[in-house]
Design brief:
The protein is of the alpha/beta class. Helix content is 42%, strand content 17%. The structure holds nickel (II) ion (NI). Nickel (II) ion binds next to loops.
Amino acid sequence: MLFDTHAHYDDERFELDRSDVIERAHRSGVSYIINAASDIKSCEEGIAFARKYEYMYAAVGVHPHEVGKLDENTLDRIGQLAKEEKVVAIGEIGLDYYYDTAPREIQKHWFAQQINLARELQLPIIVHDRDAHQDSMNILKDNKANEVGGVFHCYSGSVEMAKELIDYNFYISVGGALTFKNAKKLVEVVRWVPMERLLIETDCPYLTPEPHRGKRNDSSYVRFVAEKVAQIKELSFEEVAEITLENAKKLFRI
Ligand code: NI
């Protein structure tokens, strides 16, 4: 009954027990999982997971950390992979000014190119925005991203920006960070965001929610995020699970 809209099972931290972890999460009540890609190899791996597990889907795209290696041929390859069965989004794509792994101009260029690819293919986008809120908004708007819509994953912006995004055909997704003690700003965002615009995720193996913070994350822990949302929204866990699952099915057309 839960939908983990953002996981990285291609990560090497799952190398030794990947199928055990995925199958256990599914048995524990995670009905759907989207594997978000970071580079071409992980696009291919995500598609392989989607073939293997009926409850897994894939997003294809190149993460801002990896765009330094992108070229036109690679973008064409992403376009081809995006036509594979069970690919439901282009992502994760965006800007990361915290790590600045690639020069900002390069990040902006490939973010825009991948938005345009998503529009060509009519697929929603999964956006990574870290310390780059204004530029992310500008690039979305310059490239008419509202035509396909999508989600800001591990949302870290303000309430005002969340309003702007929702008006622009986007969803807000929250993960483990919502359960952290210093999550005041994010709690305010969740309090404000209409339930029909909220998604939940793990971003596993990263960002493990309390009470397991510090350990490796996996999709089964998405329930801690749902519990926290339920507490903030004064809803039952089941209501949050059901609404966020239906939201994700609608956005990703599953
Ligand atoms: Ni991610």
